[in-house]
Amino acid sequence: MVRTRKLKSTARFRAGFGKTVKERLRKVEEKSKKRQKCPYCKKLAVKKVSKGIWYCRACKKKFASRNYYLENK
Ligand SMILES: [Zn+2]
Fold this sequence. Notes:
Blueprint (H helix, E strand, L loop, with lengths): L18 H15 L2 E2 L6 E7 L2 E4 L5 E3 L9
Antiparallel strand pairs: 1-2, 2-3, 3-4
Bound molecules: zinc ion.
Zinc ion binds next to loops.
């Protein structure tokens, strides 16, 4: 499969989506794949289970968030 270098994961969307939209989505996607900081134990152990559901491996809490990534406060 030929992938466009700049678009990475969003290369699956071809026509129909503008370049700016894809780049914005890519940023969100890349951030959501990384481990996030847990709002309960403040450890970087939270992983996304599925859309809107997060799981912390440190304190074993599962929680829902509408966000694509968690804000590190
Ligand atoms: Zn935690």
